[in-house]
Every structure is written in structure tokens, then in C-alpha cells.
Amino acid sequence: MAEPQEQMRRNLAALRLERAPAPGTARRRRRLPLVAALAGLALLALAAARLLTGGAPAVEVAAAIAVDPDTGVEVLSGAGYVVSADRYISIGVRVPGRIDRYLAEEGDHVKAGDPLVQLDSRDYAAAVEHAEAALRYAEANADLKDRQLARARALRTAGVIAQDELDVRAAEAAVARAAVRQAEADLAQARVNLEYTTLYAPRSGVILAKLKEVGEIAVPGGFSGSGDLIRMANLDDLRGQVDVTESELSKVHLGQRAQVVPDAYPDRRYSAHVVKLYPQIDRQKGTLRVEVQIEHPDDHLWPDMSARIAFLEQAPAGANGRLVLVPRRAVAGAGADAHVWTVVDGAVHRTPVALGADFGEQVQVTTGLGGGESVVVGDTSALRDRQAVRLAGPR
To answer: Does domain 122-190 have CATH number 2.40.128?
Structure first.
């Protein structure tokens, strides 16, 4: 029985067809060892790179800054505004009248006493002429009464008239003299009203706005300055105004040096000094308003410009004649052991330093640094001298 089955298997095997290998199969089989070798090398290179970089700790660095000792060190800054020392000067009419013409335009620089606005003055000129005529009439009447009084006194001396008539003449003369003084006062008032038809600049400054148009009727007083025609500002005395929180008030005092940097021109810096500490804290905001006077304002500064105001403290220069500052977090140790870690060519170096004045977040280095070095900030307890490091922050 076994022999027929064996014979059948041989017959089936004889009938099986051999398949030809697919094109490229042999080639791919030959490439497999090469691909595996390249992949292994890549993995080894990646592992080596990770090992090399992973062994160097990542550190955060900051720059040692050298500043001008005469300028001072910033101890506090805040966002504020440029304002005029006199705020806005609104110029309004003292007498009602129609606006005849403006003698200055927006942006014009004017001096004290320059004419700004002219009202229609015809009514007031006529009032002056009327007052002048009234004065001449009163003077003539007073002269007549004085002569009558003189004759009455002579007649009374001769006994021709009674004392009562002399008293009447004296009273008439006194009334006439009083009428002259009243006419003089009316004339002076008429002349003042005529002068009021021309508005003059009370001081030097720049015209900010015209508040009414030519031909409109202007009246004095009213609500919210409705009689104002011109708004100007004194640009000779510009100040920076900023609110300082109560917790920072100890860093600000009268006469302190400051610096104003307008947001519109960040490359311009204006020297200033503290001239006013307002006498009341804003309870809701917990701040005190402080003003600094800008020492040399120019045409780039305008009222209500936003600006950054920095308060400065003076400090002596170090041994190298420069004022060098580093973040307080960069200093390790204290006293004679004070040092910083500088980064040079990817390695840290332990650099002994001597410390000077304290400026809050920054501290002065009097010896050991010249400014411009990169120093490590943060925890430096694990660092070793000349150890390779990776930078984790901006240089």
C-alpha cells in the first residue's frame, strides 16, 4: 500500500512547474546587507551626537552691561506721557463779538503778546468815541461850575448873596467834577473793551487748535469753555508724567535724574529730573503721580505723546573707569568669594569679581569684568571651570 502512495507523490512532483524569480528580487536581496549597515552607522552617529551634546549642561546667559557713569543706572521705569507744565492754555473772549479773522494757525509758534484772534471791533470803537464825547461834555460842564463857584464866593464876600446860594454853587461844582471822573472811567472801560476784541498770546507756546470758525459769534463764559477760541501749550517747559506704585516710591525722590524716551522716537533720549511728587496717593490704583522736567525739549516732543520714563541713580565708576552691571542672579558667592561664570567659546570660566552698588535686579561689578561678557544666570552650583556648555538663552 505504501508503494502506490510513494509512486503517486513522485508523479505529482514530476508535474510541478518551477517558478522563475521576479525581476530585481536577487538585486534587492544583495542590497539588504548594505542598507542595514548604513542604518546602523546612522544610528551610531545619532547616539554619539546625543551623547556629546547631552553631556554639556544647558545654561542661560545674559550680558554684562557697561554704562556711562554720568548717565546713571536705571532703577525704575514706567509708561507715561509728555505733558506741558501749564497743561493746556485756553484763550477765550472777554467781550461778545463776531470772529473777524484768526491771526495764527495750528502749529504756529507764538511769543507772549502776539495777536491771535481779531473780533469785529466796530461797535466797541463807536463806544469809545461816545465815551470820549461824554468826557468832553463833563469837563466843559465842570469848568463852568468852577467859574460860577468862584464868582459866588466873591459875591458872598461882598455880601451880595446869601451863604445858601454859595453852598448850592459849591455842590454843583463838586457834582460836575464827579461827572468828569465817571466819564473818564467810562472811557477807560470802553477802551479796554476795544482792546479785548483782539486776543493776544499770554505766553510763548504753540497753537494746538482753533475752537470756532470765522464768522461765528463768540460770547464769554458759558459751559465747558464755550467762549474759548484758541488752545495752546507752552512747549518751553515740557514734562514727563508717570504713575509710580506705592511699593516703588522709595526709589524716587525730588531732584533725581531721569530719562524720557518717546514711543514715537525710541532712538531719542531726553535728560530730565524729578520736579514734582503729587501730594496724594490714588487710593484705587495705589499709585502716586510723578513729574520729571525735560531739560532740553525739541520739536520732536508734543503734549500727550506716550513715553517711557526711567528713574536713574548715580554710581561711581569701577577700577577700569567704567560702570559695569550684571544681573544679581549671575553672582555666586559673597565677599572675597564673589564670582560669576563667563561663557567663552562654548565653555564656562569662573571669574572672581568685586561688587559695588546694589540696584535691585542688577549689581555693580567694580573689578573682574569690562562689559560685554556673557555671564551665566541662575543655578551655577553644578558648573566646573572650563566645562563645555550649551546656550539655552540669548547671548
So the answer is: no
Q: Is 127 left (phi over 0), alpha (psi -120 to 50) or beta?
A: alpha
In the chain, the amino acid numbered 189 is: Q
Distance CA 62, CA 372 (A): 9
Residue 395 — pLDDT band, cuts 50, 70, 90?
very low
Which residue spans of the chain are classified as CATH 1.10.287? 122-190
* Contact (CB, 8 A) for 93 and 226: no
Per-residue pLDDT reduced to its tens digit, 272-287: 999 999 999 988 999 9
Q: How far is Cα 193 from Cα 131, in angstroms, rounded to an integer?
A: 12
> What whole-number distance in Å separates Cα of residue 252 and Cα of residue 246?
11
Cα–Cα distance measured from residue 7 to residue 65, given in angstroms and rounded to the nearest whole number: 99
- Highest CATH level, class, for 88-120+197-236: mainly beta
Q: Which CATH number fits domain 58-71+317-391: 3.90.660.10, 1.10.10.10, 2.40.420.20, 3.30.2130.10?
A: 2.40.420.20
- Cα separation, 198 vs 94, whole angstroms: 10
Report helix, strand or coil for 288. Answer: strand
CATH superfamily of 73-85+237-313: Efflux pump adaptor protein, beta barrel domain (2.40.30.170)
Q: Which has more confidence, 13 or 188?
A: 188
| The pLDDT of residue 306 is above 90 | yes
Angle between helices 163-196 and 122-158 (to 10 degrees): 160
pLDDT at 277: 93
pLDDT in tens, 137-192: 999 999 999 999 999 999 989 888 899 999 999 999 999 999 999 999 999 999 99
Exposed (0-12), middle (13-18) or buried (19+): which is 250, by Cβ within 10 Å?
exposed
